[in-house]
Design goal:
- It is a single chain.
- This protein is mainly α.
- It has 18 helices and no strands.
- The protein has helices at about 1-5, 10-30, 30-70, 90-120, 130-140, 145-165, 175-180, 185-220, 225-275, 275-300, 310-315, 315-335, 340-375, 380-385, 390-395, 400-430, 440-460, 465-495.
- Helix 9 (about 225-275) crosses helix 16.
- The protein is globular and about 65 Å long.
């Protein structure tokens, strides 16, 4: 019976990943205080000794993908030369955005600029200069470098899978480096790391989403903010995610992703039109210019001459978050990008979601900053410092139709929660089944439930700090694998007839 149940899995990867995740869940659940201290120690060590590595590899990845987009390999298709894309641009962009960073934007879109405004890494806070730099730092953390990490994995896997017939798993990109050994223990280990990175990266987003949904429900209906409430939220919405993931890519994830975009545009448009519209659009243009002017120095700035905790709590956390998410988002965007050229893939994945992200951050972040610099100074800052997840709802309180708009925001968080969970489950299932197109539904459901459990364990075992520590630690082995993927892709592209 057991063998029959696992016949559609790649057993070494599935069983190893499941064992490690269950072990972690038991540890975090049974020894939550010890787990919280462990997470804090891990985060401190990684920031102190590995921060330079995270900064360096992200810069390296960015240089590589710009070269590929502009170089002689740009016209090569991710598939056979006569292949065509499976999805139109609208659906493609919707799934890219929903999988990539939906919940995070809702959580940090107001909270991050306000936090940087109050407590910048250098200089005085609560000034006009601090407001400008707050948007610069926020753009930097959510900008081109984030999508660069996804492109490295997604491009490599789409190229090897659709053009050379290898499975859509992380190990395939290492074939030019280690040859047939990708089918042995080395390949299994690579895929296990990819599963763990995906699991912790998605769990971080789910934990953040639960915290913000709890804040919104407290704001609207006086539902108490507590760990137990947040765990209950994770349980309920994970249930919705299991229904969606059982429906498959087209019926579930695609439709909810399209709903996400509609709701996001509605919420974005309302805040833009209800606020200082001209000022917000002007800030969007100015923020882009400021970001492009300062992107290079920020990319290599570790604040070694002005040591502080800011770099670890923000930039390094984000870089590790993007890296830990890269197997998940990379495999997912590879799966939906068959038939596109290398240039089309890179420019589409790099520019379109980033452009929408920048617009979102300017409208929500600058709306909050304008309020702080105007007649209501301190109202959003106080909420952010006291309960960061409430920042979005305090901003919406300053605008008309607050209850209705807040409900739309909660609904959007829920739909992003669902798409993150079921996209992650689909990707983990792809890895642990060896890219079996006929994998059993119970496997996807198992991973969806596992994500909810891990998110709950991390919340109970240290809250946001635990989420950050898990992300930082899971990203380290994946970063090394990504370097090998870059080498494998470069080696194989040299054999192309261009």
């Amino acid at each position: 019976m057991f063998k029959k149940t696992l016949e559609k899995t790649h057993k070494p990867v599935f069983l190893s990943s499941a064992f490690l995740i269950i072990l972690f869940s038991v540890y975090g659940g049974a020894f939550s205080d010890h787990a919280a201290a462990t997470f804090a120690s891990i985060q401190s060590w990684l920031v102190t000794y590995v921060g330079w590595f995270y900064m360096g590899v992200v810069a390296l990845f960015f240089i590589m993908i710009i070269y590929l987009a502009c170089g002689k390999y740009a016209h090569i298709k991710l598939g056979q030369d006569d292949s065509s894309p499976d999805y139109p641009y609208g659906s493609w962009f919707a799934m890219l955005f929903s999988a990539g960073m939906g919940i995070g934007l809702l959580f940090f879109g107001v909270a991050e600029p306000i936090t940087h405004f109050n407590s910048p890494p250098v200089g005085e806070g609560n000034t006009v200069e601090a407001a400008q730099n707050a948007m610069l730092f926020t753009y930097f953390h959510w900008g081109l470098q984030a999508w660069t990490t996804y492109i490295v994995v997604g491009l490599s896997l789409a190229y090897f899978s659709f053009r050379h017939g290898l499975p859509l798993t992380m190990r395939s990109a290492l074939y030019p480096i280690i040859g047939e050994r990708v089918h042995g223990r080395i390949g299994d280990s690579v895929d296990v790391f990819a599963v763990l990175g995906t699991m912790f990266g998605v769990a971080t987003s789910l934990g953040i989403g639960a915290m913000q949904i709890n804040a919104g429900l407290d704001y609207l209906f006086q539902v108490s903010i507590s760990e137990s409430t947040q765990v209950l939220i994770i349980v309920v919405i994970t249930g919705f995610a299991t229904i969606s993931v059982a429906s498959g890519l087209d019926a579930g994830i695609r439709r909810i992703s399209e709903l996400n975009i509609v709701l996001a545009i509605l919420l974005l448009s309302f805040v833009l039109l209800a606020g200082p519209t001209a000022g917000l659009l002007g800030s969007f243009i100015q923020n882009i210019g400021n970001y492009l002017s300062n992107m290079t120095p920020l990319t290599f700035n570790l604040y070694v001459y002005q040591p502080n905790e800011w770099i670890g709590e923000w930039t390094l956390f984000y870089w590790a978050w993007w890296i830990s998410w890269s197997p998940f988002v990379g495999i997912f965007i590879a799966r939906i990008s068959k038939g596109r050229t290398i240039r089309e893939f890179i420019l589409g994945v790099l520019l379109v979601p980033t452009g929408f992200t920048f617009l979102w951050l300017s409208i929500f972040g600058n709306s909050a900053l304008f309020i702080e610099l105007g007649g209501e100074e301190g109202v959003i800052s106080a909420a952010t410092l006291n309960q960061m997840p409430t920042a979005l709802f305090v901003l919406l309180e300053q605008l008309p139709w607050t209850p209705i708009v807040s409900m739309v925001a909660i609904l959007l968080i829920v739909t992003f929660f669902v798409t993150s969970s079921d996209s992650g489950s689909l990707v983990i299932d792809t890895i642990t089944s060896g890219d079996n197109k006929d994998s059993a539904v119970w496997q996807r459901l198992f991973w969806a439930v596992s994500q909810g459990i891990i998110a709950s364990v991390l919340l109970v075992g240290g809250g946001l700090a635990a989420l950050q520590a898990a992300t930082l630690s899971s990203a380290l082995p994946i970063a090394f694998i990504m370097i090998l993927m870059c080498l494998g892709l470069a080696r194989k592209l040299k054999t192309e007839d261009v």
